[in-house]
Design goal:
- With 327 residues, this protein is an alpha/beta fold.
- It has eleven helices and 13 strands.
- 45% of the residues are buried.
- The mean pLDDT is 95.
- Ligand G4F binds at residues 88, 90-91, 129-131, 180-182, 191-193, 196, 214-216, 219, 221, 255, 280, 282, 285.
């Protein structure tokens, strides 16, 4: 089996590559040209000469570069296509709405247009987001919950999410949305709140920093573990029929609780180290966020098992080790 992944250098892309390589797949990642060749989440695999250039390949392209995307896809002829790339920071999308929509919304449309011309087209998975629901009046949310985004990122994802349905229903593509609630790991980018907290807890424990500055700590999220989410993404493309699936734990926690778990893990009291700064406050903070993943449970046999406390401990341990190494 041959798979293409956009966003392969990100948290989900790197875990998904590992997952697919372990199952014997040939994996092709689309990477943007950048000034650095550092891809820390993939280094282990890129440096493995038994894999890189043999079952793992990286191709330069961009979600705005249709010609190269088309060329790469017609050459590779993948069986599966996992579309994980895009500007994914909700807060930042209020600052850079145009490029967020260009990559997240239009980037998805461009890929769908290319797939439409490929015969046979690969099975396509779009990593959609619970941000498409904005602040829903129904809780928990399922695949039929009305779409009503309240951030530029959510609006871009809603556009992409809907186009996936259009290309599935009108053009016969095997195209699916994984409507993902928050999912975290030691590979989470450092500007998302859980990772910001795990790095701070580890740094304060080691005495190399003093405080953590955050926005709203009363914000509530349904947080799961990224490794479990990529497993579900793969399962979605193994189904007999294409469908959309909510991926969520169904359990909610506040930022405050995550902080408590992370700091307690290293014997600290967060209250003594955390400060609020308005600049991390969002213009609007969604409420009622809880996913109902009953369809994924029923049809994919998928049940997330890792608790938020376990996840926090895993992330803090990783950052402790990393900071000790670099210190
Ligand atoms: O970690 P966050 O930035 O994640 P957010 O906004 O929920 O988005 C993530 O999950 C979505 C799916 O549910 C994805 F679509 C999206 O791509 C991304 O992966 O923020 C979580 C909460 C927010 O309520 C935010 O206001 O934490 C609050 N928060 C408080 N202080 C902060 C901070 N968030 C960040 N990033 N930085 C802070 O200092």
């Amino acid at each position: 089996m041959r798979a293409v992944i956009t966003g392969i250098t990100g948290q989900d892309g790197s875990y998904l590559s590992e997952f697919l390589l372990a199952r014997g797949y040939e994996v092709h990642g689309i990477v943007r040209r950048s000034s650095t060749l550092q891809r820390p989440r993939l280094d282990e695999y890129v440096n493995d000469q038994t894999l890189y250039g043999k079952r793992l390949f990286l191709h330069y392209s961009d979600l705005t570069d249709t010609t190269s995307l088309r060329r790469i896809l017609s050459r590779i002829q993948p069986d599966e296509f996992y579309h994980l790339a895009g500007q994914s920071h909700v807060g930042l999308s209020f600052e850079i709405p145009e490029s967020t929509c260009e990559l997240t919304a239009m980037g998805t449309l461009r890929i769908l247009e290319i797939l439409r011309d490929i015969k046979p087209a690969p099975r396509f998975l779009h990593a959609s987001s619970r941000e498409i629901f904005g602040t829903p009046t129904i809780s928990p949310q399922n695949e039929d919950t009305p779409v009503n985004p309240n951030s530029p990122y959510g609006a871009a994802k809603a556009f992409a999410n809907q186009l996936v349905k259009v290309y599935r229903d009108s053009m016969g593509l095997f195209a699916c949305n994984a409507i993902c609630y928050n999912h975290e790991s030691p590979r989470r980018s450092e500007n998302f709140v859980t990772r910001k907290i795990s790095i701070a807890a580890a740094g304060i424990k080691l005495g190399i920093r003093k405080e953590l500055v955050l926005g709203s700590i009363d914000a509530v999220r349904d947080w799961g573990c990224a490794t479990e989410f990529v497993d579900a993404m793969w399962r979605i493309l193994q189904q007999p029929e294409p469908r959309d699936y909510i991926l969520a734990t169904g359990r909610t926690h506040t930022v405050r609780e995550f902080m408590q778990y992370a700091f307690e893990h290293v014997g600290l009291n967060w209250v003594e180290h955390v400060r609020f700064d308005q600049k991390f406050q969002r213009p609007i903070e969604p409420e009622n966020l809880r996913g109902d993943a009953a369809r994924a449970h029923r049809e994919l046999g998928w049940t997330p098992k890792i608790s938020l406390r376990e996840l926090a401990a895993m992330m803090v341990d990783h950052d402790l080790e990393r900071l000790k190494r670099t210190a």
